[in-house]
Amino acid sequence: MHRSTPSTRAGKSVQDGGQAVRASAARALVPVITAKGSLSDLDDHQVVIRDRALFKAMCYGVCRTLPRLEALAERLLKTPFKARDADVQALLLLGIYQLLYLRIPAHAAVGETAGAARQLGKEWATKVLNGCLRRLTRESAALQAEVDQDPAVALLHPRWLLKALREDWPDDWRAIAEANNQPGPMALRINRRRGDREAYLARLVESGIDARLCTHSPDGLVLEKPCDVQALPGFTEGDVSVQDEAAQLAAELLGPALAPRPGGRVLDACCAPGGKTAHLLELFDIELLALDSDAVRLARVEDTLERLGLSATLVHADATGRDWWDGTPFDAILLDAPCSGTGVIRRHPDIKRLRRASDIAKLAELQTRLLDNLWPLLRPGGSLLYATCSVLREENDEQIRAFLERTPDVTVTTPAEVSWGRAVGAGRQLLPEPDSHDGFFYARLRKQG
């Protein structure tokens, strides 16, 4: 039986209000399983405080294991639910997830999940859910062995993505898939304007929070166990932020272009949610313009900078156009390009359902437009850092190879002598690693002249 480390244990919420939290989780999952929305709106669902950990654990867990849960559901149901009963389908998936992956007593998982159908106004479904889940408790081993004969089910990934991983990374595709299936560790970035990470590590120890230094980022720490950000010493005051180690490398890579030029003019294109924006401002004396086409996400950047006591010019605009540009060239550009997110699936498991094979070519075309539009905005001698949180080569080294072929005034300056990632074309690729960094790609380019 496949089991993951549980994010929560059965508690009072199972015995008191257990049906309500499961009904809320089912409602939250409907947009994902119908491919019409993501998990980004979980906080909008009304769930009592004592049940929020269980609520999130179930929602994320179902998305993480969705191919397997759906294969089992198909075998447990005599006839599929109708489209209008996607919430009941979500309850069935929740019940299967609890039985296989959470340390919740079987009788509670079955009873509370089946009973939650009443909370959805569909009492007729209680008998169906009860029957399916009880059958799973009796025939679990045989049913799991049957569905796991399909590699897409056993590795919890859509077939198109497994195929793409195998083609791009023939020696690593299975390890990538397995890393995607584990929750990523909680990494922190120290605000170097307010202290160093060794001193902050001591503060964590004093607070009873175990952590270790990141291997590659000089500003990073990794917590042994995730915690609420409000439990982090000095979080509200701006001493620390949550950011994966791989994402922290962007500021380090731009350092050689920014450190020698105090007051340099920098563009952070596609800046939301603002982690890299803030890191640049923490490390360098620069004039930064942060651009994003999503007004809601741009507001999050503003909130982040306010908490950290940093300032930048925030602009709501599309980086494929230039109507926002004042004509003054930039000394450096960070293009954290929109991408498939295939390097951060462990943090956003709904990507497995929401992303399609056909999306990759469209994203690559958008990345091409962004590169071609922004490159002329860079001064001669300036640097552009291209970044994605993807592991697919069409978006990464193949994208940069094509850019180099059509752009004559480019010199590749991606560092070779670093301890992270691997050289791939003109860039470096990090693959997701358990207990370490996410999947990321970087290519640093200098404009000749």
TrEMBL record:
Coiled coil: none annotated. This is 16S rRNA (cytosine(967)-C(5))-methyltransferase. The gene is rsmB. It comes from Billgrantia aerodenitrificans. Belongs to the class I-like SAM-binding methyltransferase superfamily. RsmB/NOP family. Specifically methylates the cytosine at position 967 (m5C967) of 16S rRNA. SUPFAM superfamilies: NusB-like, S-adenosyl-L-methionine-dependent methyltransferases. Residues 176-448 form the SAM-dependent MTase RsmB/NOP-type domain. The lineage of its organism: Bacteria, Pseudomonadati, Pseudomonadota, Gammaproteobacteria, Oceanospirillales. The keyword Thylakoid does not apply.
